[in-house]
Design a protein that fits this description.
Largest sheet: 7 strands, parallel
CATH class: Alpha Beta
Number of helices: 9
Number of strands: 7
Distance between the termini: 77 Å
Radius of gyration: 19 Å
Structural class: alpha/beta
Order of helices and strands: HHEEHEHEHEHEHHHE
Protein name: DUF115 domain-containing protein
CATH topology: sialyltransferase cstii, chain A
Shape: globular
Helix content: 25-40%
Strand order of the largest sheet: 5-4-3-2-1-6-7
Organism: Flavobacterium saliperosum S13
CATH architecture: Alpha-Beta Complex
Strand content: 5-15%
């Protein structure tokens, strides 16, 4: 019995430490590593006030609902990321949401999904390159192994840019103020195709929209964990000689130094 337990333990240890969990992701470094800057685009409402098409030739990383941006073709994302599916997302909601993504996201943009969602991704994203990653890892980031389990999909995007050792990483549309004191809004309309739209269509309430009390403790606890992840990635990037900046002129997200790009603001004349 002891021998059997030892074998099981060694197999589990081998699996979790194996460099071959997602061996195909080694190509990220050759595919994206020559870019001088990465631009990680969040879905904050400030995106509506910015011209982000100017980054079309950079390593643009989009996430979640960002494919609903009206200029998504011009923006030309080099990778679109989905976090692992979780409640209250149902199979029906996921199918509707991802089918919408398949319809509007540029066909040349590959998809990066968590391993557990691979089968559904292969079913829906036909003709599109699909990569997978897995939660449950630690830093330093290595996409051929399990990566840091994120409190926000932005953490996955940041890990990707750091893994590819992009010299400069720019954040836009990322502002977590809403988590505690601001309404739950994005650059897109929740009453039009989006994850929120498909949830409502199925009669599923969105807890963030129901939140009435400022600074609810559950949100604060999650915010703390999220900010700790950002701080950890900031340290790793610095150790690698990489620079991460928040260039959104409307964002107050201050884990990373500000380099506010007021030149991106639309309709300044």
């Amino acid at each position: 019995m002891k021998v059997l337990l030892t074998k099981i333990k060694n197999r589990l240890k081998s699996y979790f430490s194996s460099p071959n969990v997602h061996k195909e992701n080694e190509e990220f470094k050759t595919k994206f590593g020559n870019y001088k800057q990465a631009v990680i685009l969040g879905s904050g409402p400030s995106i509506n006030s910015l011209d982000v098409t100017v980054f079309k030739n950079d390593f643009v990383i989009t996430m979640g609902n960002f494919f609903e941006h009206p200029d998504i073709e011009k923006i030309n994302p080099k990778m679109h990321i989905f976090a692992a599916t979780h409640l209250p997302i149902t199979k029906k909601v996921l199918t509707d949401w991802w089918c919408r993504c398949q319809e509007v996201l540029p066909k040349q943009t590959p998809i990066l999904v968590e391993e557990k969602d691979k089968i559904k991704a292969l079913e829906i994203f036909k003709g599109r390159k699909i990569y997978t990653y897995s939660y449950g890892g630690t830093l330093p980031v290595d996409f051929t192994k399990k990566i840091l389990s994120p409190w926000s999909v932005t953490i996955v995007g940041l890990q990707l840019a750091v893994y590819c050792k992009i010299p400069k990483i720019i954040l836009l549309g990322i502002n977590h103020d809403w988590q505690c004191i601001q309404p739950y809004t994005h650059f897109y309309d929740h009453d039009k195709p989006s994850l929120e739209y498909y949830l409502k269509k199925e009669g599923i309430k969105i807890s963030y929209e129901e939140q009435k009390q400022p600074f609810p403790k559950e949100r604060l606890y999650r915010e703390y964990e999220l900010y700790q992840q950002y701080e950890s990635l900031k340290k790793e990037a610095a150790a690698l000689g990489l620079q991460i900046v928040n260039s959104d002129p409307f964002s107050h997200f201050d884990v990373f130094p500000f380099e506010k790009r007021t030149d991106l603001i639309l309709n300044q004349n």
